[in-house]
């Protein structure tokens, strides 16, 4: 190696040490989070440059904390919180796969692979029979059409398979709004995509409010894919868990709820600040025979420009409200649209809050890492 390249390497090494030192007091992220920026490269790792509404662009988070890594994975699956994307497949700018321009809503802005790499751990997917296959579709009346179809489900399942294969300590949960009527259609899909080898069997899911198996055991057994369907009969016919046997879930927002004048008019829809109601298919939130709690926080019609408001302070408020409604249980799944949009910490900070609460009684999972208990979280 020549002297020049050697000193160049030394320079890089010194720069990276300086960077480590600058960040080692824990203020590195704080100092750059919320700082003004003009491009993503201005922002610290894990942050990107984004403008919420009309305000100046600032560095905001786009990655989740891995609670298994910064704390541990030795607790039951239901003692952790997981960032969840609503309609994970309905991605802005996805080219049409049917040859017909798509006319339907979108809820996310990056690929399922990117979502998983950024720390999303539960995906809400709508599965339909379409073109002699199973497709992900954003439709109505239970029928996929050429102008509402996104892609063959197997493509997305293969992305999930690749992620699980590359990340042997991670668990992914799929929550299917399921319109597939083809017998064994989903089973074939999971077989064909190579996901069956990660299957977490229904027989291991607790029925009466007990704890789930330990994450460390699920990882050791390679049972790292949990799938829920909205079709009750598939639990018996295909061994796919019926979602509401295991989970309580709140009603999502009415799309006009952000307008307070309409909020009053539609006040019984379960979207009011300070209220958290179960969605119709779910048992009441305080039914503790279901060990998992899912909180949805998105409007019935996705509106990109206001998603960052929804994903910021309002989201934390709703998680607190739903905690009370769910018999003082913190939610395990927090489902949002446009998950990267926020005015700072967004859905990532909300998930950190939930994990902090669940794991050590603190407001942020980072406090648990040091082995804190609720009496020693620090802060105000
Ligand atoms: C799934 O794979 C298993 C084992 O490879 C096989 O027995 C079963 O018939 C397959 N099911 C479907 C619906 O493809
Ligand atoms: C659950 O909440 C409902 C009101 O929403 C209440 O009537 C019921 O008694 C509660 N059940 C339990 C077990 O707390
Ligand atoms: C894992 O973390 C939890 C929460 O901080 C703690 O209660 C538990 O003792 C830890 N388990 C191990 C094996 O370190």
TrEMBL record:
Keyword check for Methyltransferase: no
Cited Pfam families: PI-PLC_cat (PF26178)
Signal peptide annotation: 1-22
One biological process term in Gene Ontology: lipid metabolic process
GO molecular function: phosphoric diester hydrolase activity
InterPro entries cross-referenced by the UniProt entry: PI-PLC_domain, PLC-like_Pdiesterase_TIM-brl
Keywords from the UniProt entry: Signal
Annotated protein name in UniProt: Uncharacterized protein
């Amino acid at each position: 190696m020549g002297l020049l390249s050697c000193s160049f390497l030394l320079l890089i090494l010194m720069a990276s040490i300086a960077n480590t030192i600058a960040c080692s007091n824990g203020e590195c992220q704080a100092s750059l989070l919320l700082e003004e920026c003009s491009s993503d490269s201005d922002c610290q790792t894990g942050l990107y440059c984004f403008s919420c509404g009309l305000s100046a662009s600032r560095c905001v988070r786009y990655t989740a904390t891995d609670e298994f890594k910064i704390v541990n994975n030795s607790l039951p699956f239901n003692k952790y919180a997981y960032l969840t994307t609503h309609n994970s497949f309905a991605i802005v700018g996805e080219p049409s796969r049917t040859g017909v321009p798509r006319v339907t809503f979108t809820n996310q802005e990056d690929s399922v692979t990117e979502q998983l790499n950024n720390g999303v751990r539960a995906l809400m997917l709508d599965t339909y029979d379409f073109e002699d296959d199973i497709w992900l579709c954003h439709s109505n009346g239970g029928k996929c059409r050429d102008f509402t179809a996104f892609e063959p489900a197997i493509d997305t399942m293969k992305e999930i398979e690749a992620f699980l294969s590359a990340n042997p300590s991670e668990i992914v949960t799929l929550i299917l709004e399921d319109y597939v009527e083809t017998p064994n259609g989903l089973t074939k899909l999971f077989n064909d995509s190579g996901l069956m080898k990660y299957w977490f069997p229904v027989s291991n899911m607790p029925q009466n409010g007990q704890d789930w198996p330990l994450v460390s055991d699920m990882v050791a057994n390679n049972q790292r894919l949990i799938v829920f369907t909205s079709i009750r009969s598939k639990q018996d016919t295909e061994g796919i868990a019926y979602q509401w046997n295991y989970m309580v879930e709140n009603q999502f927002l009415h799309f006009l709820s952000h307008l307070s004048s309409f909020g009053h008019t539609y006040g019984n829809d379960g979207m009011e600040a300070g209220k958290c109601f179960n969605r119709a298919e779910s048992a009441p939130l305080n039914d503790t025979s279901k060990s998992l709690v899912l909180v949805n926080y998105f409007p019935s019609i996705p509106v990109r420009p206001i998603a960052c408001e929804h994903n910021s302070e309002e989201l934390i408020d709703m998680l607190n409200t739903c905690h009370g409604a769910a018999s003082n249980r913190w939610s395990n799944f927090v489902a949002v649209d446009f998950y990267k949009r926020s005015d700072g910490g967004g859905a990532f900070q909300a998930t950190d809050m939930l994990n902090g609460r669940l794991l050590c009684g603190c407001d942020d999972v980072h406090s648990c890492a040091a082995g804190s208990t609720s009496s020693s979280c620090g802060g105000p």
